[in-house]
Design brief:
274 residues, alpha/beta, Rossmann fold, 4-stranded parallel sheet, binds nicotinic acid adenine dinucleotide, binds adenosine-5'-triphosphate, binds magnesium ion, nucleotide-binding, NAD
Length: 274
């Protein structure tokens, strides 16, 4: 029962046609840009699966808009390493596949270090490595909003069902954006879209990582969550999983509800019915 309710709430389809799904979502990007009058999109490209897929979709969307409408649309890809990124080659491979109109790099380390230093000075203790990881995600969000404001763009975000279900994103960090074109897809459906696009296999075979902690570089999402994406995807497709997996996912879903909602107001009741 709870599984069905979660699948419905996250809008997951049991099966998809990769071709149609991709075109539908790209069409949404185009319609929304036209509706808002925005000049296009900005997105951080990490070298991981999700930003490779969304970056490609955004680039194709603006190319089509330029042909159909006028020349003002553009996609700006941002490389946002924290100092030197250990898997920079993957990011370069993603960019070679996407071929963005424009790519710029901003090192987020000075800003993140300055924030951590100010915190330590004020509270006489260090920000934990885990919390500094969330500061990295929020710094990336800030940079994308600076670029969006300067060029009249929309910030696109990579959140999808396999992350939304566990709340595996930083609140107001990578979770903050204007539109979420991949919403409702699970991880293997995202993979299927990249395969359909003939993306280099390394872009979708790469181990998913948030890569936010200094002490555990490249920590895999699956290790951090104690769940595999296959388990998460099976659950989201309505398949039977072990009791342990099901209970864990339902627990994650419930305790992260606040991350999928707008800030809680006195008028909100959803939190009081659990
Ligand atoms: N019940 C509640 N109602 C309203 N607000 C509540 C709350 N409980 C906590 N909060 C607030 O939420 C904050 C905690 O949320 P948050 O700051 O997000 O922090 P949190 O959920 O603890 O950590 C974020 C997780 O997402 C992972 N992540 C982040 C970014 C990218 C990726 C990736 O896959 O690429 C993964 C990261 O590795 C970590 O495991 C609290 O500090 C508090 O301010
Ligand atoms: N080093 C980085 N440079 C630029 N953008 C980044 C970087 N790290 C994270 N991001 C942004 O944060 C988003 C969330 O990261 P997340 O790890 O969920 O996605 P991903 O790296 O694209 O794919 P995967 O989940 O398979 O690793 C990315 O899609 C990207 O837009
Ligand atoms: Mg990643």
């Amino acid at each position: 029962m709870q599984q069905e309710a979660i699948i419905r709430a996250l809008n997951v389809q049991q099966t998809i046609s990769p071709d149609e799904e991709y075109e539908k979502r790209k069409g949404f990007l185009k319609s929304y840009a036209k509706h808002t009058g925005a000049n296009g999109f900005v997105l951080g490209i990490s070298g991981g699966q999700d930003s490779t897929l969304l970056g490609k979709m955004a680039q194709e969307a603006v190319e089509e808009l330029r042909k159909e409408e006028n020349g003002r649309y553009q996609f700006i890809a941002l490389r946002l390493p924290f100092g030197k990124q250990h898997d920079e080659d993957d990011a370069n491979e993603a960019l070679a596949f996407i071929q963005p109109d424009r790519t710029e790099t901003i090192d987020i380390q000075p800003a993140v270090d300055a924030s951590a230093k100010s915190f330590a000075l004020a509270f006489d203790r260090e920000l934990s490595d885990f919390h500094k990881g969330n500061t990295k995600a929020r710094e990336r969000m800030k940079v994308q909003y600076d670029v969006a404001a300067a060029f009249g763009l929309l910030v696109i975000g990579t959140d999808h069902a396999a992350e939304a279900i566990t709340g595996f994103f930083t609140k107001h960090g990578d979770g903050a954006c204007d539109i979420v074109p991949l919403y409702g897809l699970n991880k293997r459906q995202g993979k299927a879209l990249l395969r359909m696009l003939d993306a280099p296999s390394s872009t979708y075979m790469k181990t998913p990582t948030a890569d936010l902690e200094d002490d555990r570089p490249g920590l895999s999402d699956e290790e951090a969550l104690g769940l595999t994406y296959d388990e998460i995807d099976d659950f989201l497709e309505g398949k039977t999983t072990s009791d342990k997996v099901e209970n864990k996912l339902i627990h994650y879903y419930q305790v992260t509800e606040h991350k999928r909602r707008t800030p809680v107001s006195p008028q909100d009741e959803w939190w009081n019915h659990k």
